[in-house]
Each structure stands twice: as C-alpha cells, then as structure tokens.
Design goal:
Elements: E1 4-6, H1 14-17, E2 26-31, H2 38-47, E3 56-58, E4 63-65, H3 82-86, E5 87-92, H4 106-131, E6 138-140, H5 142-145, H6 151-156, H7 158-173, H8 177-191, E7 194-195, H9 203-214, E8 228-229, H10 230-253
Parallel strand pairs: 1-4, 2-5, 2-6, 3-5
Antiparallel strand pairs: 3-4, 7-8
The structure holds zinc ion.
Residues 30, 141, 149 line the site of zinc ion (ZN).
Amino acid sequence: MVPIVKQLCPPERYKIKCPYSRTPDRIVVHNTGNCVPAKNEVTYMINRPEVISFHVAVDDEEIRQAIPFERNAWASGDGRGEGNMYGIHIEICYSQYIEKNTSLMVGQIYEKFAVAEENAAEYIASLLKEYGWGLDKVTKHQDYDGKYCPHRTLNLGWERFLKMVEKYYKEADDMTAEEVKEIIKQENEKINPTYNTLEEVPSYWREDIRAMMEQGIIAGTGNGRLGLTKSEAKNAVITWRSNRKLMEALNEKV
Ligand SMILES: [Zn+2]
C-alpha cells in the first residue's frame, strides 16, 4: 500500500471542519472533481472557510488523512445525517481534468485517477479489516443527498469499484497463519537481528561477548553459530559489565 501521511486539521479549526466526536460506522466514497494531488486537496480543505471537509484524500502516490476518524466531517450534503455524522469520507483525487490548474495532459490525469482509485480500494479494504466491517459498509456520497458523486467512479461502474475493494479484502483474508508468522519474523528480524558470528556483533559489545563465550557463559547454538539476538546480547552485556564492576568492588574491599 502507498504511504499513509497525516496532515491533521488543527484543533482550532474543529468547530468548522469536524465539530462532533463520534464512532464511525461506515465508509463514504467521493471523487474530488479536480486534478491536483492529495496534499493540495487537504491543504485547501483545511484552510478554506466553508463548512466543507473530508477525512482522507487518496492520489496515485499517497493516502493523506486530514481529520481523525473519531470526528465527523461535512462531505455528503446530508446535514447531521448518517453520512456526515458516521461516515469516514474518502476523496479519490484526479477525477476531473481542469485545464486552469494543471500542467498535466488529460491522459496523465486519467492514468493518475486509475492508480488513485486502486489505492483507495486497497486502503478501504484495510479500513474494513481494521474496524471489523463487511463490504456492505462501503457507501457512496450519492446515497446521502443524491449528488452524482463519486462521479468518475460511478461512470466507470460502482459494482466494479466494490469488486476492487473485495479483491483486496479477500487477499488479506487469504493470508495463511504461516505467511503471517513469516511477516512477523521478518519484521522482528529488522528490529531485533540475530548475530550468528562474533563478527556480526557490534564492536561495542564484541569483546564482552567474546569473554562470556570463553568462560562458557554463552554457548552458541552448538553448530558453531552464535545465535544470539540483539536484545539477548544487550542484556548479557549489561549483566556482565555490572557483575564485573561488582566483583572489582568486592576485590577492592578484600
Ligand atoms: Zn462527494
């Protein structure tokens, strides 16, 4: 998934942009009707004086969040109705070619929209997972006030878009327990790598580890590999050094 960037509306603007705290219960999809990236959409939305807002804008390169999901937004034209009050409003960028504010060609805008829409589908699927929701929670602006929005997504086919979301939703579902374990292992290995040889141990710990090996305190895995994780090595060195200090202190007293 493309990066998720937070560019949150300052709290002093809450009274205009998102006055109510709430628990969200659905997704509402929009198209921006514009041809600028998510960053511009979010900046413009936060700064404009009108009571108009949305939670997230998605373009071909990123997902940009503007309003916390625990607050409402003014996006679906239904006042304090279910859309505005309970929807997580997601704007898909580059849905319209407007000559005056782009240097891009029409074809480039279409291409960016196609990628943005795909990114939005993947992101929405991840939100459904996060909230434990089914696909029935994906709604469109049109459902609330009849406005033809998300216009390009509707032109291309709403069912088609829902299928895209479903594809990502199922992909995440299809992950086996083994695959999940493997991902966790790889993530963990990044944070807490395993040192298999003394040379892999950082130099600032190496001599302590060597001394502990010589004294048989660290035995290795038995097949010539050290097999010591970073956190194990760190703890061993801390204990080793403090014990050594203690012994030195005791010896001085004797
Ligand atoms: Zn809309």
